[in-house]
Amino acid sequence: MPSVTDRLRALPWWLRSSVAAAFGALASLGFAPLSWWPLLIICVSAFSLLALTAPRWWQAALVGLCYGLALYLIAIRWMRVVFTEAMIGLSALEAAFLAVLAVLIRLAGRSRYWPLLAAGCWLSVEYVFSSQPFGGFPWLRLGYTAIDSPLAGLLPLVGVPGAGFAVALMAHLLAWTVLSAGSPRRRVVGGAAAALVLLSGTLGLLVPAGAEQGSVSVGYVQGNAPGGGIYGLGAPRTLTRNHVAETERLAGRVASGEEATPDFVVWPENGTDMDLFLDAQTNQLVKQAVAAVQVPVLIGTITNGPGPNERQTAAIVWDPVTGPQARYNKRNLVPFGEWVPLRGILEPLFPVVAYVGAQSIPGTGPGVLPVQLPDRTVAVGDLICYEVAYDSTVHDTVLGGAQINVVQSSNAMYVGTTQVPQQFAITRARAAELRRDILVVTTTGVSGLIRPDGSVAFTLPEFQPASGVVDLPLRSGLTPAVWLSGWLELAGIALTVGGLVAVSWRQRGRTAYPQAIQAGGPLPVRQNGPVESNQENP
């Protein structure tokens, strides 16, 4: 009777690719809003099985490409509200990374330690597509899905990269177990190793939330926007007026005693949709809102400059007495949403990209804003929307001395799509990684408060104006993930590259025999003679 590996190896290329696409589509269900993480592990395992048993490298690449296209076209279909062309192009780009990943996993299969090496391949490719090209697109990393699984405890220890490695390792151990169908001992070992990885999440219980050093009362305002899509922000100054009106309602409740008096108030990204320094009406509306609450307001805004036809997304602390104070400029920008790569080339070919507007220019410094209160200064760690997906940007807030963390976001274009819950899930992973409370304030939802373990204290409904006041503990201290995860990620990549080089070196001059891994061991190879098992491989 043919083994599992024989049956997989015998799949014709078109069926292999079709099955990969089906598992890619199912993998999208592992991400928010459904967050079916066990299904995601199964899909990653299937991806590896199809790549490992591919008779030729191009078949493995086709597996990765089809899996990636199905995954991204479904999981980031929310990009259609910007440009359908951008969604298709980005999906194709990310699928190309997964095609490379599949080829690397096939190569890793020549090693007796291939589950570890294949998980390292996943870690390495995620590192690359999280930074390249055009700043990368780190949206569908495996580590974000850990927040709803027993592996969530790894987040404060080894961060999102380490948690992603653990997810990939579990998937590859599952694949190893499947390929070991003829060896009960290997199946037991594989199952025990997977269980051990899963139980490693309990180690996170050893990492407490940051030490509390008092608290601060923070007001939040979700002003609401007219609708979704590229024109979801409404006519000029609509967002500003909505946030002013809701801020005044909050001030009224504070005056009547319904709400506690806040120390300062947070508006979302795009709390104003025009330059509050250059547009007189917007400037006056901002002053009106700040005067109503009589405390500093952290305003998300868009400012013109620094050059012609350029703009910046900024967070500005506006004091009721002295006016604008500290400022943070958004560092991680959305390609084709806030700026257009290769604009001089693409805009003549695709005039639709002109709707992006002026080219956004990224900031450079960390998002730590001092907010001056009557009796003290509070350091606010600020992340603006898309930035929650970037490890170094997130870590820089607490490394820079932030005592509380907030996320300002403008989700008006994406309201009603899966982008909103996906970003909220990523933010939950960040809260667990930092062991800090995170207050999320958006234009239209979902705003809310996330606890240090990633659980949700409350959320506000979408498409409704809302506001309130919450007490946030002032925290200090760093989790191991903040100072260790980046180095661990680089070390893991270096070991993976070394392992792949060693596998290639040992097989130089040999031709891979078109037979899948037997009993969980390394892939046999063929020279100019009989088949020999490459058991000495690393």
Structural account:
This protein is an alpha/beta fold and 538 residues long. The chain has two domains: 4-206 and 483-526, no CATH class; 211-478, Carbon-nitrogen hydrolase (Nitrilase/N-carbamoyl-D-aminoacid amidohydrolase). The protein is built from 14 helices and 15 strands. Helix 12 links the parallel strand 8 and strand 9 (404-409).
SSE diagram, text form:
Elements: H1 4-9, H2 13-27, H3 37-52, H4 57-75, H5 84-108, H6 114-129, H7 155-179, H8 184-199, E1 211-222, H9 238-256, E2 264-266, H10 280-293, E3 297-304, E4 310-319, E5 323-329, H11 343-349, E6 359-360, E7 368-372, E8 377-384, H12 391-399, E9 404-409, H13 419-434, E10 438-442, E11 448-450, E12 456-459, E13 466-476, H14 480-506, E14 511-512, E15 525-526
Parallel strand pairs: 1-2, 2-3, 4-6, 8-9, 9-10
Antiparallel strand pairs: 1-13, 3-4, 4-5, 7-8, 10-11, 11-12, 14-15
